[in-house]
Amino acid sequence: MKNIIIATISLVILISCKSNQEKNKPQEPNGPKPSSSQLILEMDSNNDGKISKTEAKGPLSNDFKNIDSNNDGVLTLEELNHAEKNHNHKPPQQENTSKNLSNDIDRSVKVLPVNKDYFIAENIIDGIQTKMIELNGVETLCYVIKTHSQATEHPMGPWCPQHIDDGIEKAGIWFKDDKVYDVSGHFIANLDEFYSDNQWKLYREDGTINVTNTEEGCLAAAKPDVEEKYNNYCVECLPEYFKDQVTTFVIPATPKYLKTTQSFGRGGIGIAFNGVNYDPPAPTHAILAAHTIAPLDDHGGHVNPHGGYHYHAATGSTKEIAQNDTHAPLIGYAIDGFGIFGLLDKNGNKPTDLDECGGHFDNILGYHYHAGEPGENQVLKCLHGLPGYTEVKE
């Protein structure tokens, strides 16, 4: 009997302890997330079928600005459904927000808004979204554009010839001293003379060329610190290796001209109308130090693991928006929202008054950029507007 009483008391104590532990344990959310309709039912205190900023509670309050796509101060069922569908209310966050540029804005300068209808719709993921986003201390209406950075108007590649007898039709282009060169097999075979360095030899005794023909080789060679075993290689990464990457561009819908210039951060410096990224200059010093070469295709693009297919030069291969006068065509937008135009006007003339970034003013277009020469390895030199940003999800 005594043993039974002791056992009973012990069981009661154990149950009591377990109950207290469960009571003190942090509560985990129970059940499924509420639907958009349930959120409105729970938070819509004035029964107007919408959720205002003062009515929003919890995580919805934190994400209010990102979900309110038309910036009218209320969330509709349609906006909530769209946010629920994407499971990702917040656009990528700007990397460098510590620099407040609000006092650098010159509002006297004429600017033109971004025309989102110029983009090729089928190249954009889920359409172009409109969000209010803080850029360097400035609340800015932005376009959020997601793409797979895959060109559609032209083939991507080729880049590397496979044999020293291959002609220019089987490879891309390279640049040196602002000049463009065709990367034929003959060009590869004579790189030692081209760079006055007898350490260059990208081909074998049978004339075949060392090419990174696997994704593993691409990952090892298409980076500034080229792995040693890929020295003396022609670097070729294929778009299909990274076709599922998503690049998100956040661009001011109406650019804001700055009195100061801004250097490029990581990521893209602009976007072509096909959704492909314009990139900062390729790190040629690191590439050449390993006696490797990473050609562009004839369209000015190549592939790397952290950006997919992207352009380092504007060669006239992508969609252009012709102007009503003799001005060069519009070929895309910089990450600050200013238009990027081709270098040559309809008469074949270059602008002569470009600033340090490659931009200038006129009475019709306001401030805008002109792309650099294809051999310069830079579409733009810097930015003169409040910069947006990009993010790549691999």
Automatic annotation (TrEMBL):
<dbReference type="Pfam" id="PF14240">
    <property type="entry name" value="YHYH"/>
</dbReference>
<dbReference type="InterPro" id="IPR011992">
    <property type="entry name" value="EF-hand-dom_pair"/>
</dbReference>
<feature type="region of interest" description="Disordered">
    <location>
        <begin position="85"/>
        <end position="104"/>
    </location>
</feature>
<feature type="domain" description="YHYH">
    <location>
        <begin position="249"/>
        <end position="343"/>
    </location>
</feature>
<dbReference type="InterPro" id="IPR018247">
    <property type="entry name" value="EF_Hand_1_Ca_BS"/>
</dbReference>
<dbReference type="Pfam" id="PF13202">
    <property type="entry name" value="EF-hand_5"/>
</dbReference>
<feature type="compositionally biased region" description="Polar residues">
    <location>
        <begin position="91"/>
        <end position="103"/>
    </location>
</feature>
<feature type="domain" description="EF-hand">
    <location>
        <begin position="42"/>
        <end position="55"/>
    </location>
</feature>
<protein>
    <recommendedName>
        <fullName>EF-hand domain-containing protein</fullName>
    </recommendedName>
</protein>
<feature type="region of interest" description="Disordered">
    <location>
        <begin position="48"/>
        <end position="67"/>
    </location>
</feature>
<dbReference type="GO" id="GO:0005509">
    <property type="term" value="F:calcium ion binding"/>
</dbReference>
<dbReference type="InterPro" id="IPR025924">
    <property type="entry name" value="YHYH_dom"/>
</dbReference>
<feature type="region of interest" description="Disordered">
    <location>
        <begin position="21"/>
        <end position="40"/>
    </location>
</feature>
<dbReference type="InterPro" id="IPR002048">
    <property type="entry name" value="EF_hand_dom"/>
</dbReference>
<feature type="domain" description="EF-hand">
    <location>
        <begin position="63"/>
        <end position="81"/>
    </location>
</feature>
